[in-house]
Design brief:
The complex is a heterodimer of chains A (409) and B (105).
Chain A: E1 8-11, H1 15-26, E2 33-36, H2 52-55, H3 60-63, H4 68-74, E3 76-79, E4 84-88, E5 93-96, E6 101-103, E7 106-109, E8 113-115, E9 128-130, H5 134-141, E10 149-153, H6 157-168, E11 172-177, H7 189-201, E12 205-208, E13 212-216, E14 223-226, E15 231-233, E16 236-239, E17 243-245, H8 248-252, E18 261-262, E19 274-276, E20 281-285, E21 290-292, H9 297-311, E22 323-328, E23 331-337, E24 344-348, E25 357-363, E26 366-373, H10 376-387, H11 394-398
Helix pairs in contact in A: 1-9
Chain B: E1 3-7, E2 13-17, H1 24-30, E3 50-53, H2 57-60, H3 66-73, E4 82-84, E5 98-100
Parallel strand pairs in B: 1-5
Antiparallel strand pairs in B: 1-2, 3-4, 3-5
The chains are: A alpha/beta (409), B alpha+beta (105).
Bound molecules: flavin-adenine dinucleotide and FE2/S2 (inorganic) cluster.
Domain 2Fe-2S ferredoxin-type (chain B): 2-105
Protein name (chain B): Ferredoxin, 2Fe-2S
Pfam families (chain B): Fer2
Chain lengths: 409, 105
């Protein structure tokens, strides 16, 4: 086995970067491991940002993937607060914004992405917030007093999770989604309708098919202007309309970028000493049979571990069936596979009347994906069915008198 | 600090000092114990923190809630001693707790 000696430098202290470092140590790498991050905080978990952390139910330290003492014990250095601005591949060095240079033997790009800003007039006002970092949420939390009005732009996971937290905190919440339904890119109309109903029942003013034209107000935004001419009074705005992968550093170093940093199934770029992992990568998926860029913890951690294994000389591809979860109110949504392209939908339970059900997506008679709401056992079984691309009789799959277990081989 | 002992399927043992109030999963990942991933960060959504709890502690822990029971029901390799370690909170009473890690599936 050709084992990496020397310094592994990881750019980006998100879950992909931290997992790479941790796995390198687990596999016995005994050289220096250095994570260089733009954010001042130790590598942390992002999912709670729109859940427990927004709600004020956990502290920054509880978000950290490893506490400072454990990082130190593991010999993982974190240099935060200064971004890397340049990679010199020939010299094997990176340069940071403060002019300092660092040497590497192997480099891992785990630069993730940044929240997409809303390209409308007034979006730069100080009470318009994105939701990607601890710093973003700290600013939002300062505005979260009961009775305040918030306009959330975007009916994706982040917008809906934030809506659930904020309405529970006693704010008057309006959600503005440009497409005809929420979660339109990731789920079927039945599941979208379910979440729309749940949010409306909780008191959220949820509007779909509306376009935000701009924000009105002097020093601060006072109202949201919609393209139909109507306005919505608000005290502050949260924007959750997607992610821009951080690929500029890779591109300026001459590495291939196409929707993300292009890597192979071993997380390698075209440079034998540079790997990439997480939200920033455009990578081949064995399961999907095509290239894809994913934004999920599973992908970030799985690719981080794969990068570590390959740096350690093990030629092991990553193989994963994508999965994701979202917590809203008392509900747990768990999704496995990628549902786009399905030709048949099978429901177990009734999303129109119940608060727990499962939806299976079939293509040519095979299960390609499933969404479950508050049905953990069916989720775990669905994971297996999706991984196997199983063929199951749709009538039996829909029959709730048959436990799902009996359909899993 | 309560001491926890993790035993890998291979027999390899890891003794770690845990902090009261953190979860058993967090104690494991913080000390680089192999085989406990904690993908969902303790949201009871992934089962990558599955462990077998040795006696006498197994019977002494608060029983799993409905969500954890559901996840375990669908997890490969479950036994009567199976728990999701992110759902077990470290307390002084758990000093000496022994946990076995399932073989990688
Ligand atoms: C609010 C929210 C809720 C989420 N909920 C879920 C969920 O429930 N389930 C789920 O699976 N996923 C969820 N996600 C997605 C998940 O958090 C991400 O997919 C995952 O964190 C990506 O990790 P990463 O390490 O690839 O990137 P990131 O976490 O984006 O980390 C990249 C890091 O690199 C740093 N960086 C970038 N450029 C540079 C540079 N030039 N120099 C130095 N540092 C740099 C960035 O500042 C950042 O800290 C959520 C995300 C958000 C924002
Ligand atoms: S860490 Fe995901 S279920 Fe325990």
């Amino acid at each position: 086995m050709t084992q990496a000696k020397g310094t592994v430098l990881i750019i980006g202290g998100g879950q992909a970067g931290a997992e790479t470092a941790v796995e390198l140590r687990k596999l016995g790498h005994d050289g220096r491991i250095l994570i260089v991050g733009e954010e001042p905080f130790l590598p942390y978990k992002r999912p709670p940002l729109s859940k427990a952390y927004l709600a004020g139910d956990c502290t920054e330290t509880q978000l950290y993937m490893m506490q400072a003492a454990n990082l130190e014990k593991a010999g993982i250095e974190y240099h935060g607060g200064v971004p890397v601005t340049r990679i010199d591949r020939a010299a094997h060095t990176v340069e940071r914004a403060d002019g300092t240079q660092l040497r590497y033997d192997k480099l891992v790009l785990a630069t993730g992405g940044r929240a997409r800003p809303l390209p409308v007039p007034g979006a730069d006002k100080p009470n318009v917030f994105l939701l990607r970092t601890i710093a973003d949420v700290q600013k939002i939390r300062a505005h979260c007093q009961p009775g305040k009005r918030v306009a959330i732009v975007g009916g994706g996971f982040i917008g809906l999770e934030a809506a659930a937290v904020l309405v529970k905190k006693g704010l008057a919440v309006t959600v503005l989604e440009g497409l005809p339904r929420v979660l339109a890119r990731v789920t079927c109309p039945q599941v979208s309708a379910f979440f729309e109903r749940v949010h409306r029942q909780a008191g959220v003013d949820l509007r779909t098919g509306v376009q935000v034209a701009g924000f009105d107000g002097d020093a601060e935004v006072k109202r949201v202007c919609l393209s139909d001419g109507s306005t919505i009074e608000t005290d502050f705005v949260v924007v959750g309309i997607g992610l821009i992968p951080n690929t500029e550093l890779a591109a300026s170093a001459g590495l291939a970028v196409d929707n993300g940093i292009v890597v192979d199934e071993y997380t390698r770029t075209a440079d034998p000493d540079i790997y990439a992992a997480g939200d920033c990568t455009h990578h081949p998926s064995r399961f999907l049979g095509r290239y894809v860029r994913l934004e999920s913890v599973q992908n970030a951690m799985e690719q981080g571990r794969a990068a570590a294994r390959n740096i350690m000389g093990r030629q092991e591809p990553y193989q994963m069936v994508p999965w994701f979860w979202s917590d809203q109110y008392d509900l747990k949504l768990q999704m496995v596979g990628i549902s786009s392209g399905y030709d048949q939908l099978v429901l177990r339970g009734d999303p129109a009347t119940q608060r727990h059900f499962a939806v299976f997506y079939l293509k040519n008679g095979r299960i390609i994906a499933a969404d479950t709401v508050s049905r953990p056992q069916e989720f775990m079984l669905a994971k297996k069915l999706v991984a196997e691309n199983a063929t199951v009789d749709p009538a039996r799959l829909a029959d709730e008198t048959l436990p799902l277990k009996t359909l899993v081989g | 600090m309560p001491t926890l002992k993790f035993i890998e399927a291979s027999g390899q043992t890891h003794v770690v000092e845990a902090v009261v109030g953190q979860s058993v999963m967090e104690a494991a990942t913080g000390h680089l114990v192999p085989g406990i991933v904690g993908e969902c960060g303790g949201c009871c959504a992934c089962a990558t923190c599955h462990v077998y709890v040795e006696e006498p502690w197994c019977g002494q822990l608060d029983p799993p809630d409905e969500m954890e029971r559901g996840m375990l029901d669908g997890t490969p390799g479950v036994t009567a001693r199976s728990r999701l370690s992110c759902q077990i909170k470290v307390s002084a009473a758990l000093d000496g707790l022994v946990l076995r890690i399932p073989a990688a599936s």
